[in-house]
Every structure is written in structure tokens, then in C-alpha cells.
Structure prediction request, 248 residues.
Amino acid sequence: MKVLVAVKRAIDYNVRIQIKSDGSGVVHEGVKHSMNPFDEIAVEEAMRWKEQGKVEEVVAVTIGPDACQEQLRSALAFGCDRAIHVKTDDEIQPLTAANVLKALAEKESPDVLILGKQAIDDDCNQTGQMTAALLEWPQATFAGKVELEDGKAKVTREIDAGLETLEVDLPAIITTDLRLNEPRYLKLPDIMKAKKKPIEDSSLDELGVTPAPGLEAVKTAPPPQREPGVMVESVEELVSKLKDKGLI
Prediction:
């Protein structure tokens, strides 16, 4: 069984986001980037399947500029067998990413294509669903537990009413949620070994994919600053303050 796992380079979740002065987007230069946390969960899950003997090969893939090799090296340090870098300096929107993953899935013929439910930079939560639609594969999104057995995947996920369990035939698309697992800490020897592993280069042209910019960011602005808090001495003063603000 083969697993294709998609990873994305995103601004590290610990970084305080800064908006460009002209409002055209967020500042990326000189800012720490890392693997999208939801994709890191996807890599960890794929490696657990391999350690359990359910999967023979795990292939990591990313789309983006040369700097994205850092995230592929992290995936290789987790234990991925191969890595594919689809190089481009263009902005990658969900539909373009889905078309790239479709082309790679047709080329690699994986049993499972697993990725994070969303990226923390755009929060689109679209790529997995679009890829499933393009491939005409079954999908199980927001996975909190996954069991692979007999050519099927049993996926448990949270819904408003509780837990829902889906069973899908393979090949299938699975997107990961936070409760699926806790990624391991990478060991220094594994990181050093990953630096020597080759990365296969590809491009949008080689895969026959034309960027599809369906979304246009008109303006980016920071959230409004919160007003400072007010200390009150009594319940009566609290009620008065709330009435002044029209909250009661």
C-alpha cells in the first residue's frame, strides 16, 4: 500500500503576523516558516501506518518555491521514503493545488492521499475536497481516528451532534484534524539523514497544470485593537457600565 501525503509551507504558528503597509498581504520576508500543523499530523499518521506494517511506501509532496524544500526535509526526517517538490513561484490557490495533487495521484497511484484539513495561512479548507472531486475518489474529512483494513478506511470524525464514523473504499482522500494524533519530536540523527536524501523535482508544466487564480485578495487588514479593560468596584457599577454600552 502506498500513501501520498501533501505538506504546505506556512508562517509558523508562533509568529505574530504583520500586515504590509500597503495592505496587499502579510509580511513573509524574514519570518520563520514551518510545516502547516495539520499537514504535520497527516505525515505522523502516515508514518504510524508504515510502522504498523499497513503501508509500504510514504511519499511526501509540496508545491511552491525553493524554500519549500525545508518542509520536505522535515517530512523525510519523519521517515517518508520519497519526496516530490513541484516548483513554482506563483501563488498556489486551492484549485491549483487540487489539480497538482490529482496529477500526482494519477502518476503515483497511491491507495490513500492524506493532507491537513486546512492550512493555517489561508484557512480555506478546500484542497482535500476539490482533489476528491477531481479524482472522483471517496473522501473522509476532519479525521479524528483512522483505521485501514481490507482495502477500506474507517474514519471517525467530530460533528455537531457527536462522533460520526465513515467507511470509504480505497483509494480515498483523507483530511486530518487536530485530535488524530500528536506528531513526534524529530531526532537530530533523523534530521541529518534527511539532508542527504534526494528530492524529486517537478513543475506545473510537467504535470500539465495551469494555475487557476479563482480568488483575489482585495485588501488585508489587521483586526481592530481591543479596548482596554475597566475595573469596577461593585456589582452596581458593573451593571451601570453594561447599560452605558447598551449590553443590557
Notes: The longest helix spans residues 37-51. The chain has one domain: 2-244. The longest strand covers residues 139-149.
